[in-house]
């Protein structure tokens, strides 16, 4: 933000060089990015009075001027045709310097001596082009430094204003910082003006239909005379980077730059029904803004309208249909406060960022409206632009009140590492516009324009920056060294990583952001809860707009990248979180994702999972066939069950899914919820002595239907022979000519043993027959 130095010192009497002020403000927390000094390179240029002009004897286009510069009368040759006798002009003396490092010395022009040069605005660096020599106003003193006459002392301070300091988005806010930094009084802004005896309610009515407008105020000015602004106002606007337009528009811009509160002026003639309505726009509504561009609005945007049409996009830009024209005679000044987030989103959607929107989006102080509106009316009266109608409209349903804090000054000293009195602290805070009562503690009333101050640490920061960061003594860091300890979850995650790496897997890390398209790529059902994802409010793009609910797309995408780069032997894993929506903040769930392609099969994947389960000491594990999951190949997918609860799924990816990821080989993937595994983790290990008594080994081969899972068979064997069966081992699965269609032959080796005695053949036979019978009854098995 550009702040003219001359404007700044209007409110603080400071007699210091602009660079010294810039350095001090930067040290106190108001960062100055650039200092632009006026007339820095101009030296020995004074005002001169042209007493006589003669023709040059040797050149038709040159003239000889006798110029009085106060201390002497100089002879200067010029080619300018606009200079006349009696004019007062800038004169560059012998040895003077002009912008760009141009040196002026006396010499001869076509044989006639010239002791200087008459200067134009362009040569003085105050205009890009000029038609001739600069003619100064009549009565300008002679022999005076031109920088004093033209006000070229000082310059412009360009500030970087952080988003938490909207109070510094105006000249007066910066002046307050100067006042506090140098401990100088801050002058009040002049807001006095006269109203006529009419009532504004006879002119205009206002209705606010949406609470995104927190306050709306308006005043009416009649007998308006639209014309150019005074030169001083135009110069200040241009110095601050704003183009002058006309006196009414310039007043609104001047107030915005001075106070940081945007304003707008409507031509009263074009307000239908003499009523202003603050409402939401309609979806698809078209509106032409002041820049001549037709824009399409939607129902998330706030607009200022009348009874028939939209007049302005609230907080962003007005419309062509109500702009101030040369024949405007009655003006409605609008001064409002809007929800900052809504203005920012509106500005972004429209691709239109203005001086107003850049301020409103930072949530301005609603109480700033009073002084801004009165200041505008004061300026109307000062420059004679119109007559203010009596009264004002002010809709302010929920006034913002000052915030009160109680802070211990001893705590502030200890927190910062300084030692100053509470009275000095109070003085600093008062310069910042706070009301402070000094008792044992500081009772502080924080003004509403400092919405960034809410806690005692904020007060300490204000004290520190005004005291001077460079004055705060340095101190060695003190603290107690504490041994860093991993949490239980971190330790268990490291175990999982170590097991996977020891099995030949490489760890990957992928983004938690995914595209909505991944759900279709992995063939999720329409009613799948995984499609209910957390949507990011400000995504980098559509491909990164959702928080992932499953690791499978990330695993497959990584396998695809490797596969397409001719790396077709890949074993990867990722330990990461997925996110599910909830009423409050999203729920985070830690999961393990595994992916394999190459010379591997289903059982390699199952083996890797079992290694993790073994290290965790989890023995109550079941595997159930899963034919409902469309991501996986039917019949080659299993649910991982721990304590009869599903904790994961693994198997071969469906060929259609593999095709979506451009992988032509078989792909094996697993996704496991780690939290149930952590809960089932056993820290104790129990060991049994070697058996004293011999075992009895019996083989069994049965015919069962294809859809019967071997896990079902094993469960029946273990359940029926629970006190006698030590282990069950599958050693053959056969389908061929000797086996009927739709059937398979499954063979097991069953080991029988008791820990307390040697089993007899008769005991084993009874148990073995019971197992066979149970398999026949429950699974329709046939003994081969």
Number of domains: 6
Q: Helical proportion? A: 25-40%
Strand arrangement in the largest pleated sheet = 27-31-32-36-35-34-33
The count of strands amounts to 40
* Mean pLDDT across every amino acid position: 92
Number of helices: 20
CATH fold node name of the largest domain:
Phenylalanyl-tRNA Synthetase, Chain B, domain 3
Distance between the termini: 91 Å
CATH top-level class of the largest domain: Alpha Beta
Outline type? elongated
**Class by SSE composition:** alpha+beta
Portion in beta strands: 25-35%
Specify the CATH homologous superfamily of the largest domain.
Phenylalanyl-trna Synthetase, Chain B, domain 3
The CATH architecture designation of the largest domain is 3-Layer(bba) Sandwich
CA gyration radius, whole angstroms: 42 Å
Largest sheet: 7 strands, mixed
Poorly predicted ranges: none
């Amino acid at each position: 933000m550009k702040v003219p130095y001359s404007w700044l010192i209007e409110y603080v009497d400071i007699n210091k060089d602009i660079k010294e002020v810039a350095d001090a403000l930067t040290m106190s927390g108001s960062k100055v990015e650039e200092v632009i000094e006026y007339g820095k390179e101009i030296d020995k240029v004074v005002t001169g009075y042209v007493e006589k002009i003669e023709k040059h004897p040797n050149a038709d286009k040159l003239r000889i001027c006798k110029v009085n510069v106060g201390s002497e009368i100089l002879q200067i040759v010029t080619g300018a045709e606009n200079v006349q006798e009696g004019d007062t002009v800038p004169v560059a003396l012998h040895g003077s310097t002009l912008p760009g490092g141009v040196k002026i010395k006396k010499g001869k022009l076509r044989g006639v001596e010239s002791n200087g040069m008459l200067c134009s605005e362009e040569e003085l660096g105050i205009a890009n082009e000029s038609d001739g020599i600069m003619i100064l106003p009549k009565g300008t003193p002679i022999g005076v430094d031109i920088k004093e006459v033209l006000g070229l002392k000082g310059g412009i301070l360009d500030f970087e204003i952080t988003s938490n300091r909207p109070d510094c988005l105006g000249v007066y806010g910066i002046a307050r910082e100067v006042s506090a930094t140098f401990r100088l009084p801050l002058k009040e802004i002049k807001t006095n003006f006269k109203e006529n005896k009419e009532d504004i309610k006879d002119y205009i009515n206002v209705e606010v239909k949406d609470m995104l407008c927190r306050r709306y105020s308006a005043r009416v000015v009649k007998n308006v005379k639209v014309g150019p602004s005074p030169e001083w106002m135009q110069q200040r606007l241009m110095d601050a980077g704003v183009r002058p337009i006309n006196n009414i528009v310039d007043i609104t811009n001047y107030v915005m730059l001075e106070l940081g509160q945007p304003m707008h002026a409507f031509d009263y003639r074009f307000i239908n029904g003499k009523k202003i309505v603050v409402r939401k726009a309609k979806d698809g509504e078209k509106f032409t803004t002041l820049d001549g561009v037709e824009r399409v609005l939607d129902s998330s945007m706030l607009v200022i309208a009348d009874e028939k049409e939209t007049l302005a996009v609230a907080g962003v830009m007005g419309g062509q249909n109500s702009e101030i024209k040369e024949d405007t005679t009655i003006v409605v000044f609008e001064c409002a406060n809007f929800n900052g987030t809504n203005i920012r989103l509106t500005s972004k959607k429209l691709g239109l960022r203005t001086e107003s929107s850049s301020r409103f989006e930072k949530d301005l102080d609603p109480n700033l409206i009073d002084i801004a509106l009165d200041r505008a009316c004061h300026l109307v009266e000062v420059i004679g632009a119109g007559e203010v109608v009596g009264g004002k409209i002010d809709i302010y349903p929920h006034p913002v009140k000052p915030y009160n804090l109680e802070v211990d000054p001893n705590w502030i000293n200890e927190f910062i590492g300084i030692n100053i009195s509470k009275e000095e602290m109070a003085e600093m805070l008062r310069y910042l516009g706070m009301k402070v009562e000094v008792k044992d503690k500081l009772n502080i009333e924080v003004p509403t324009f400092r919405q960034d101050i809410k806690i005692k640490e904020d007060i300490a920061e204000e004290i520190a920056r005004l005291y001077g960061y460079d004055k705060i003594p340095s101190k060695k860091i003190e603290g107690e060294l504490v041994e860093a300890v991993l949490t239980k979850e971190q330790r268990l995650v490291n175990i999982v990583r170590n097991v996977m790496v020891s099995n030949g897997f490489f760890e990957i890390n992928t983004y938690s952001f995914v595209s909505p398209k991944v759900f279709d790529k992995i063939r999720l059902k329409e009613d799948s809860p995984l499609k209910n994802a957390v949507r990011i409010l400000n995504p980098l793009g559509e491909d990164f707009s959702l928080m992932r609910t499953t690791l499978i797309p990330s695993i497959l995408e990584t396998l695809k990248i490797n596969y397409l780069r001719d790396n077709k032997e890949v074993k990867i894993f990722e330990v990461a979180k997925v996110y599910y929506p909830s009423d409050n903040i999203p729920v985070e769930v830690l999961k393990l994702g595994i992916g394999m392609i190459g010379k591997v099969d289903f059982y390699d994947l199952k083996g890797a999972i079992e290694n993790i389960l073994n290290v965790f000491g989890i023995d109550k594990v079941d595997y159930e066939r899963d034919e409902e999951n469309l991501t996986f190949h039917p019949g080659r997918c299993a649910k991982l069950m721990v304590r009869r609860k599903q904790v994961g799924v693994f198997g071969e990816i469906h060929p259609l899914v593999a095709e979506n990821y451009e992988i032509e080989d078989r792909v094996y993937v697993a996704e496991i919820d780690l939290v149930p595994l952590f809960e089932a983790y056993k820290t104790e290990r129990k060991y049994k002595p070697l058996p004293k008594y011999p075992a009895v080994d019996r083989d069994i081969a049965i015919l069962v239907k294809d859809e019967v899972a071997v896990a079902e068979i094993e469960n029946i064997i273990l359940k029926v022979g629970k006190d006698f069966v030590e282990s069950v081992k599958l050693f053959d699965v056969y389908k061929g000519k000797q086996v009927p269609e739709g059937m398979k032959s499954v063979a097991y080796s069953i080991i029988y043993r008791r820990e307390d005695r040697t089993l007899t053949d008769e005991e084993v036979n009874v148990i073995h027959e019971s197992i066979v019978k149970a398999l026949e009854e429950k699974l329709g098995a046939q003994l081969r």
